[in-house]
User: What shape does this take?
Amino acid sequence: MRENVHIDIVKIIEILVLSLGSIVTLFPFIWMISTSFKTPPQIISYPPTLIPKPPTLEYYTQIFTKLNFGRFFLNSGYISVIITASALLTSSFVGYVFAKFNFWGKEVIFMMILSTMMIPFAVTMIPLYLIISKLGWINSHLALIIPGLYSTFGIFLMRQFMSSIPNELREAAIVDGCGEFRTFWSIILPQCKPVLAALGIFTFMWNWDNFLWPLIVLNNEDKFTLPVGLSMFSQQWWTNYGLVMAGATISVIPVLIVFFIFQKQFIQGIVLTGLKM
Amino acid sequence: MGRIRKYKNLFSSRNMLILVAIIPTIIFYIVFSYGAMGYAFYLSLHNWTLGEPVRFIGFSNYLKVLKEDPLFYKSLWNTVYYSIVTIPLGGILALLLAVGINGLGKLATLFRAIYFAPVVSSLVAISVVWRWLYQPEFGLINEVLGIFGVPRLMWLQDPNLAMPAVIIMAIWHGVGYTMVIFLAGLQGIPQTFYEAAMIDGANRWQLFRNITIPLLMPTITFVLVTGVIGSLQVFTEMFVLLGTPGSGPLDSTRTIVVHLYQRAFSYFQLGYASATAFILFGIILILTIIQLRLLRTRWEY
Assistant: This one.
């Protein structure tokens, strides 16, 4: 009896502390949204208020009409989608070949690929910049897409996963007269849906958020991705806090909504991709 | 094995599949990883500065970085400062959150989602938001601290406060990720271990100390090793929070990558920056090997 009461009190304190932490975690978001709807006098009023009265939509209109935010958004979106699709395809294809076939030099090639994960981006970014400018891709989205066609981590993850698919599955399909490419595409690939979803989410998030490389290779506003655009824009308009917060809100909220809907897949993806590294 | 004869044909569909998969991959990695790294090494041996003739100078760039560049040591120290505070503090906080959340049922899902929200948010966007929170006159943080009688702090303008300000934001941003990794680790610990220990009369602290921590050691190693690799390359937080190029007041937030970025893309000293990058690579490799050695030998069961 007493034991139960004791445990309950511990639990209640735990939940209280966690709730307090949740407020601290969410408050920057709440404050960001609140500021983005406030008129300038409300923004600097003392004491600060949480609910804008009356709320203004002016910053959001400005962002999409006078500023290029819609463009940044589209750029980030289509680049991330292409890279993600490509990384999923190449990772599963290459991962499959490494998992299910034996060929000359296989282990060495695989180790060569895998060990590139240890090279910090700081080492390769300068030569990549020179290569990209020789190719004439500075200020072109090709500079982002081409180096993203393969994902080392993806190849590793898919090889691990494909190894667990029984060999009989492929052999049965081949015996039935299915070609190698079709076997991969219609027999093997459908088996990988959960891991592909995880890798897809991971790759998309990473590219949506990628900053340093786009910052180096893009210098025309039309070409900016959302992070680069927001960073430039926030420095240019810094003292217009409402406008800058509207920009931040636009960058954060869509992803947060998607995250809350697909929470389980996101977390599974992170755990799967994180723990297996 | 009976099908071996069929595979002998060089142009069999099996061999084509392998070739189509492997050849482009090898070309890609030769160009974008090994070629790039070789090129970087070549650059690091040359005086390669925009507007000056390219000149082979051996290891002079490395010597210059290590012997004549006080800003390199400043940036190295700042990077160490950032890592040495962020990783343990963030890690302990994440572990406490994970232990607290684990086993709360429906509430656990809610808490997990909330603490994970900053992780999925664009780092640039949240850095912009925190820059506003740290604003000295109207920023929320100073307003809240004011209630407790704390005088207005110049968070991002004060050389002593700029790095702590970045660290606070970085922990806020990253703690949910580490927490989720720990939660996965906790779920891998068999419940029977706890039950057996409880029958023996162990209290919560003893359970945590003698079951949770040792069995979580692989996860802790993972968090530590990846945390060090990541935080040694910290850049975006500084760049956005402190404004271009991210070096902060009196270079107090100049990290190695900030330093390298400025050398490479503001001053176009590409050879010099490449040498700095290789020194960073060396530091990362050495620290990773040391950590893996120490943690493996001590905790392998």
Summary: Chain A has two domains: 2-56, 63-275. The mean pLDDT of chain A is 91. Chain A touches chain B through 88 residues (CB under 8 Å). The two ends of chain A are 46 Å apart (CA to CA).
